[in-house]
Write a structure and sequence with these properties.
Elements (H helix, E strand, L loop, with lengths): L3 H11 L5 E3 L14 E2 L9 E2 L3 E4 L9 E9 L13 E5 L11 E4 L3 E2 L5 E4 L9 E2 L10 E3 L7 H10 L4 E3 L4 E6 L3 E2 L11 E2 L2 H12 L3 E7 L3 H14 L2 E5 L10 H8 E7 L2 E2 L3 E7 L2 E6 L3 H19 L9 E6 L3 E2 L5 E10 L5 E5 L8 H6 L2 E5 L5 E2 L4 E6 L11
Parallel strand pairs: 5-6, 13-16, 13-17, 14-15, 17-21, 19-24, 22-25
Antiparallel strand pairs: 1-12, 2-11, 3-10, 4-6, 4-7, 5-9, 8-9, 18-20, 20-21, 22-28, 23-27, 24-25, 24-26, 26-28
The structure holds adenosine monophosphate and magnesium ion (MG).
Amino acid sequence: MKALDEARAEVLSVMPKLPVAKVRLTESLGRVTAEDAVVREALPPFDNSAMDGYAVMASDVEATPVELSVNEDVAAGSVPTKRVEQGTATRIMTGAPMPLGADTVVKVEDTESTDPERVTIRKTSVSGQNVRPVGCDMARGDIIVEKGVRLTSRHLASLASAGVDPVVSAMPRVAIMSTGDEIVDPSTESLAWGTIRDSNRVLLRSLLADLGVPVVDLGIIGDDPEALRTAYAEAASSADVVISTGGVSMGDYDYVKQILGELGSVDFWKVAMQPGKPFAFGSIHGVPLFGLPGNPVSTFVSFEQFVRPALLHMMGALKLLRTRVNGTIGEDVDTNEAKTVFLRVLLAHDTDGSFVAVQSGGQGSAMHSSLAKADAFAVVPAGTGSLSAGDDVTLEMFRWPEGRSIDE
Ligand code: AMP
Ligand code: MG
């Protein structure tokens, strides 16, 4: 058996890197930066007002109230034409450029004006107050987003403000298929005896959609050597990565192993983790192949532990693994001491705000019910064996718990 970390390192070491290119900002969400994105000009590009109010000289408003004459109005998008001199003010809107001579803005709430040409300043304002100086957000040459980061909505906003199109990695195209004679389409109304609906493919599709990765869906392939041969060949010719589920354990009718052996160089691994011990990895026609075990929970765990990090690595991402946090386990649990066990858990908050994890249902690797409800894996390292209620446990967050209801 291979230890999980070693197996993952072996996978990552052979994943090819994808080409990189500058893309339009609007096409970059979820892609990984291949270069630091650098600011070309200071932001904001000019000193501007942070408030609706009056731009004045701080020295004029040291003692208040004081009456000043208003020299002009400047809205956002227009520019001042007059200098603020002693005894004068410019009526200014949020985002409008500061007039020369003024060094502070008194917000409109702290003023009174009945005559458009005059204003009474009621509160003092020190130099720099309510002014956003040029470059206070970003200076020319600052790095907005570093290389190796998966772009979020917030990164895109920063890049937009700086007018920068990022250089990002291409996305891997991923071919998926479910294998097995017993597997039928999920839309099947009444199941023939001995058949089950395909849940792995929609699981994989959705996990890949979360990564923003394009999918080539080859459907369900029966346990038939010819059909498998054709499907794997088509997958390898149309994608950068192939994922199939089923047929990699010990069964007699599993032709997957035989076909993968013929088409490429694929190893059949036993990884010291639960679920997800059997796992095929290698390449067919030079394209990386992941042969995931058929049980849906095993498929999910194997995807999380191997496929997701591998795809992110291909894209040049630096953070390949999910966030882990500390919590406590809320109940006694016995686990297999020989393996790293991934328990599906639900998270609640303890009185001090820390996470308490309880199993989200039965932990069998074919059980969808506990998978659907889970927020995280409680990771029980090999060599641990059992946990008692109140023990510390590492939580691997594959999602954050669904928000809060309005009255919480
Ligand atoms: P296998 O890895 O082919 O030996 O399959 C292991 C178990 O997973 C069997 O009970 C299969 O029926 C089940 N299984 C395989 N593929 C799927 C699938 N696509 N959706 C749901 N269950 C599956
Ligand atoms: Mg099978």
